[in-house]
Design a protein that fits this description.
Keywords: Repeat, TPR repeat. The chain is built from nine helices and 13 strands. Strand 12 and strand 13 form a beta hairpin. About 8% of the residues have low confidence.
């Protein structure tokens, strides 16, 4: 039985159109802070969204990148922001918070591609699309290193300003135990001990290896006459420092 040539032509047209709508390069131009970027492989357009090669894009935005080939997961870090995506998974994680993706990362011809707009905006940058010129313009914003600023004030014994900087660092990433610990020792120096205990407990909750969190909590309990509670904290400090010396350094004065 012979098929009508018109039907065959129509079917081929539909197939070609479908494929072109799934992946189309369309010569997309990407500019970062006004500078044209040459990515290899080139960005592709899928279902109205742009996918871009993982490593060169993260690095162009000033972020470090790690690839877990076993779980097909990419983690990008810049300043106080951590972005985690898993290939073909529509849930990403930004600073510990789950975010739904309309388009997940994909592996295309052996290369890992990630959604451009989502990654750029997750890092705090502005992403604009000009459909007339097929140009994506990204304005990179670097978040001040509030922890470093806080440390500067802390070591100068300017504890009020140190507290302000550490709290800003905490707001940037609520899942990072370090700002909680830093806030705790600053409040301790300001003699706000109840608040300090809360932040030490929070740091320990987020990082069970936060040895210094136990140590400084022990100081407060000892000063309040809770010798048993203080001793437990000192014992935890000694145990963590002995068994996990590397991990114990994450939260330190």
């Amino acid at each position: 039985m012979k098929l009508d040539k018109k039907i065959i032509t129509l079917c081929m047209t539909v197939i070609i159109f479908t494929l072109s709508s799934v992946f189309a390069s369309q010569n997309i131009e990407v500019r970062i802070n006004g500078q044209k970027q040459d990515f290899s492989p080139a960005p592709v357009l899928q279902n109205g969204s742009t996918l871009i090669p993982m490593r060169p894009f993260f690095e162009a935005l000033g972020a470090s990148v790690n690839w877990d080939s076993t779980h097909k997961t990419v983690v990008g870090r810049r300043d106080n922001t951590v972005v985690e995506l898993t290939i073909n998974k529509k849930i990403a994680i930004v600073n510990g918070k789950e975010i739904f993706l309309s388009l997940p990362g994909k592996i295309i011809n052996g290369n890992t591609f990630i959604p451009l707009r989502f990654v750029g905006e997750s890092l705090g940058d502005d992403v604009d699309w000009n459909p007339q010129t097929n140009t994506i313009s990204i304005t990179v914003h670097r978040i001040p290193n509030y922890l470093a600023l806080g440390n500067k004030y802390f070591y100068a014994t300017d504890f009020e300003n140190a507290l302000e900087m550490y709290k800003k660092a905490n707001e940037v990433n609520l899942s990072d135990p370090v700002p909680y610990f830093k806030i705790g020792i600053t409040l301790q120096n300001l003699n706000k001990l109840d608040e300090a205990l809360y932040y030490f407990d929070k740091a320990i909750e987020l990082d069970p290896y936060c040895a210094y969190g136990y140590l400084y909590k022990g100081y407060i309990l000892y000063g309040r006459g809770d010798l048993e509670g203080a001793q437990k904290c000192y014992d935890m400090y000694d145990e963590i420092k002995l068994k996990y010396p590397k991990e114990s350094k994450r939260c330190s004065p």
